[in-house]
């Protein structure tokens, strides 16, 4: 599924990154740019892909990228809110962009340093999480569905999210280890809005998740890769792009979107947090990831949807046409995005999920 880049294309990308803009950082010293991203979420040179960070450092030899990863929006938010880390670029999902924006945790972007923003499709501008396009630049988009092993899971059981409650697959089911995605699945199954603030509805969701717990092998985030690829687990809800990564390793894996009940349709963005020390370098990094050639090479490896249509010219046509990364519009109409929840409700949901986990 994933394209193996031919040598001349990689060379073209790197050679096309040699022109320095007028606002580049001072060449007299090295700047350390701290980038905090999801795991498996940037092309790193494996599988003959472009090493995006190496290409950026080649373009800006005075900037060194210190790259680290997080498992969930909530972990990233907690570390930043507590002052536990200082980073310059983060990649939150839409609802977390809204929360951090409202809580004053994001810096306004200087788009003079991000001219490639012009390539972002209009569909991904003026999103509810950042209606004035001041704090974020879309990075990817995608869906949440069910990954399953076709060797062990009967097709007749693919009727909806209730597959994750099917006792036939006890101890072979994985579940999200973050409250928003876990409660979102329960809300879809129960027919509630995924953005409800009704405490009784949320408590009902918690009860449903508690009923599922005896069937769950593990609550996971990035641990899902090994467990599904090695067939230690057979069923897991997760992100479409990561399914394609796993399917490269285990061709028996399939992906299912419960259209009849609905599913999460998300956008992840690049932002600069309030604690950033190297704002201009951070904007250069964001701009670099928006270059169509770079974005195309990057999306070819991470397998998520690109908000930059011009990038598709530089992608493997098989990836561009893949219905998992780019579902048909009539399917996308069944997807919904998570909205911002006030902090009191976010804490309420997180506490309910904690009780489910420790009960």
Describe the structure.
This protein is of the alpha/beta class and 359 residues long. The protein has 13 helices and ten strands. Strands 4, 7, 8, 9 and 10 form a five-stranded mixed beta sheet that branches. Strands 2-1-3 form a three-stranded parallel beta sheet. The N terminus is likely disordered.
Task: Describe the secondary-structure layout.
Layout: H1 7-15, E1 31-38, H2 52-59, E2 63-70, H3 73-81, E3 89-90, H4 94-102, E4 137-149, E5 173-176, H5 179-190, H6 199-212, E6 216-220, H7 224-229, E7 235-239, H8 240-249, E8 253-256, E9 263-270, H9 279-289, H10 292-302, H11 317-320, H12 329-332, E10 335-336, H13 343-358
Parallel strand pairs: 1-2, 1-3, 5-6, 9-10
Antiparallel strand pairs: 4-7, 4-8, 4-9
What are its keywords?
single chain, alpha/beta, five-stranded mixed β-sheet, 10 strands, 34% helix, disordered N terminus
**How confident overall, as mean pLDDT?**
92
Structure classification: alpha/beta
What does the overall shape look like?
Answer: globular
The biggest sheet, with number of strands, parallel, antiparallel or mixed sense and barrel status, is: 5 strands, mixed
Termini gap: 41 Å
Strand content: 15-25%
- Total number of beta strands: 10
Question: What sequence of helices (H) and strands (E) makes up the elements?
Answer: HEHEHEHEEHHEHEHEEHHHHEH
Radius of gyration from CA coordinates: 20 Å
In helices, the fraction of residues equals 25-40%
Q: Would you identify the regions where 5 or more consecutive residues have pLDDT less than 50? A: 1-27
Summed up, the helix count is 13
């Amino acid at each position: 599924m994933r394209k193996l880049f031919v040598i001349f294309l990689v060379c073209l990308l790197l050679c096309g990154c040699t022109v320095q803009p007028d606002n580049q950082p001072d060449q007299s010293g090295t700047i350390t740019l701290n980038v905090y991203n999801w795991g498996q979420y940037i092309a790193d040179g494996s599988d003959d892909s472009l090493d995006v960070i190496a290409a950026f450092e080649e373009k800006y030899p005075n900037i060194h990228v210190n790259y680290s990863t997080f498992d969930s929006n909530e972990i990233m938010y907690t570390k930043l809110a507590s002052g536990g880390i200082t980073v310059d670029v983060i990649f939150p999902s839409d609802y977390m962009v809204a929360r951090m924006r409202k809580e004053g945790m994001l810096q306004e972007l200087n788009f003079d340093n991000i001219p490639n923003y012009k390539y972002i499709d209009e569909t991904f501008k003026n999103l509810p999480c950042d209606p004035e396009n001041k704090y974020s630049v879309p990075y990817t988009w995608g869906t949440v569905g069910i990954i399953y092993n076709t060797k062990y899971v009967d097709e007749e059981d693919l009727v909806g999210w209730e597959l994750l409650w099917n006792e036939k697959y006890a101890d072979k089911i994985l579940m999200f280890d973050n409250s928003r995605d876990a409660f979102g699945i329960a809300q879809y199954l129960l027919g509630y809005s995924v953005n409800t603030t009704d405490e009784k509805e949320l408590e009902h969701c918690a009860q449903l998740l508690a009923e599922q717990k005896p069937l769950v092998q593990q609550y996971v985030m990035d641990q899902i890769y090994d467990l599904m690829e090695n067939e230690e687990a057979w069923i897991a809800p997760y992100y479409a792009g990561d399914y394609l990564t796993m399917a490269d390793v285990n061709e028996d894996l399939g992906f299912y979107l419960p259209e009849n009940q609905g599913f999460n349709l998300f956008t992840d963005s690049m932002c600069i947090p309030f604690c950033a020390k190297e704002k201009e370098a951070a904007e250069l990094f964001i701009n670099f990831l928006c270059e169509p050639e770079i974005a195309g090479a990057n999306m070819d490896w991470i397998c998520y949807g690109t908000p930059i249509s011009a990038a598709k010219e530089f992608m493997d046509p098989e990836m561009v046409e893949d219905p998992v990364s780019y579902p048909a519009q009539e399917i996308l109409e069944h997807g919904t995005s998570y909205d911002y929840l006030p902090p009191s409700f976010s804490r309420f949901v997180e506490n309910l999920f904690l009780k489910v986990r420790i009960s």
